Amino acid sequence: MNNLLGILLSYLYIAIVIVFAKFFENYGKEASRKFIHIMLGNWWIIAMYFFDNVIYASFVPATFVIINYLSYKKDIIKVMERSDNKQEGLGTVYYAISLLILSIVTFGIIKKPELGLVAVFIMAYGDGLAAVIGKKINSFKYKIKDTEKSLAGSLTMFIITLIIISLYLLYINSALMVIKAVVVSTIITLIEGISIKGTDNITVPISAFLILLVIV
């Protein structure tokens, strides 16, 4: 019963996020997109609370792989899509794919959904706030193909990632916490910095998950 309720609440939460994103369009299309990017990461909390079966945990992100791809092609969920997808690419699809992969692995294979939470939060809050602050603060810009990044954005990514990883390592009482947190945050920030056309939505959470899986 909890699993079915979790699915219903998942779709309800996602719908609420998309509706509220419309208010952020007053501050620009990118503001609404990043609001969705950040807030959807919180879905993992719902998943951890309600799902005790990998099939149910994977169901919602699996459906959104399809929905997000159709939206990308047909501009169905307008508040979520850029008018010019040249820089973002299939970013929204990669986001859902990451959630699906992490759901399958952490709920089914290794049964450590809390590790998935860390990876998802790094993608949602770290990458999301990096894009927002990177555009707000005038700093050195660098470009990889069609994707532009900024020093302010990368620094934000590093700080948010460092906070999230530090809290997790503190929670599990990991040895050499400070060194691990700094090293992992640096690697993930570099990965985000070289990822192009929305691929950071898959390279960042998956690499964060794999690195943490090894060191902890």
How is this structure best described in words?
With 216 residues, the protein is mainly α. It contains nine helices and two strands. It starts with a helix and ends with a helix. The mean pLDDT is 92.
Per-chain topology:
Layout lengths: L1 H23 L4 H11 L3 H8 L3 H21 L16 H19 L3 H24 L4 E4 L2 E4 H21 L5 H18 L5 H16 L1
Antiparallel strand pairs: 1-2
Helix pairs in contact: 1-2, 1-3, 1-4, 2-6, 4-5, 5-6, 5-9, 6-7, 6-9, 7-8, 8-9
β-strand number: 2
Q: Which residues form runs of ≥5 with pLDDT under 50? A: none
Structural class assignment: mainly alpha
Q: What value does the average pLDDT take?
A: 92
> Helical segment tally?
9
Strand order of the largest sheet: 1-2
The sequence of SSEs as H and E is: HHHHHHEEHHH
**First and last CA, distance:** 33 Å
How many strands, which pairing sense, and closed or not: the largest β-sheet? 2 strands, antiparallel
- Proportion of beta-strand residues: under 5%
Based on CA inertia axes, which overall geometry fits?
globular
Gyration radius from CA atoms, angstroms = 17 Å
Helix content: over 70%
Task: Identify the quaternary structure here.
Answer: single chain
Relevant terms:
216 residues; two-stranded antiparallel ribbon; mainly alpha; 4% strand
Quick structural summary:
The protein is mainly alpha-helical. It has 9 helices and 2 strands, in the order ααααααββααα.
